[in-house]
# Entry
Amino acid sequence: MIVISSAELRNNMKKYLDLAKSESIIIQRGKNETFHLTAEKVLEPDADYHRAISAEEFREGAKAHIRKLYAKKNSTCE
# Structure
């Protein structure tokens, strides 16, 4: 973690943006303000993304599974 002033960031912007890819940068602005500079990573969709289901689809599937289990249990009890 590196702590720098806002003036240092302004004077060496490229340097600190490059450093933020691998470590945390804390920017001190005056005595009462601090900011945390980090790189944001964008995830690319993969096979799991394409197989994903919505919460509603999951809920409906779970309800159907529970109904099936109850039906199976009731048929074996008779």
In short: The domain at 2-37 is CATH 3.40.1620 (YefM-like fold). The two ends are 67 Å apart (CA to CA). The chain has two domains: 2-37, 47-77. Helices lie at 6-11, 13-19, 47-51, 55-77.
